[in-house]
């Protein structure tokens, strides 16, 4: 993979010009679609400005009354549902998997979205962190000295359909593992 130092001035100028481009009127790809195209060999990379276009396209698909998540929001799962989780590591990688969030379990938005006042998705933590971590994350990962915790990525569309906002302004620090 090339770094900025590896690029010629022509390549840098081309990249900057693409970033200025407006989204084509017929654009209809999501971020997931872009990555699927890359997996299928239709594109070599996923980058700018296509990521921004995909994000804007996804935002336009949301109903007008969509509530966008904010730091401190607490959401209750309205049903048992499979969710993706990510694991953080003291290494240059991110892991993850799938787990079941049970009806009634709570997640909270622990960060802000400085670049995006209307995010299409957010990172969230379970309110009962230790309980869900034990249930979802393999013990071998939790016990690794490089393991740094887990969190969810939840789409705004899913939060508005499969969850209920139950509280705002919540703040909780995660308990340290022993």
Derived from helix and strand composition plus strand pairing, the structural class reads alpha+beta
Shape: globular
Q: Which assembly state applies to the chains in this document?
A: single chain
Task: Tell me, rounded to a whole number, the average pLDDT.
Answer: 88
The rounded distance between the terminal residues' Cα atoms is 39 Å
What's the helix count?
Answer: 6
The value of Rg in angstroms is 19 Å
**Strand residue content:** 25-35%
- Tell me how many strands there are: 7
Structural account:
This protein has 178 residues and is of the alpha+beta class. It folds into 2 domains: 8-61, no CATH class; 74-167, no CATH class. 29% of the residues lie in helices and 25% in strands. The chain is built from 6 helices and 7 strands, in the order H-H-H-E-E-E-E-E-H-H-E-H-E. The protein has helices at 9-20, 31-39, 50-61, 129-136, 139-142, 156-162; strands at 74-77, 81-89, 94-101, 106-109, 121-126, 147-155, 163-167. Strands 3-2-6-5-4-1-7 form a 7-stranded antiparallel β-sheet. Strand 2 and strand 3 form a beta hairpin.
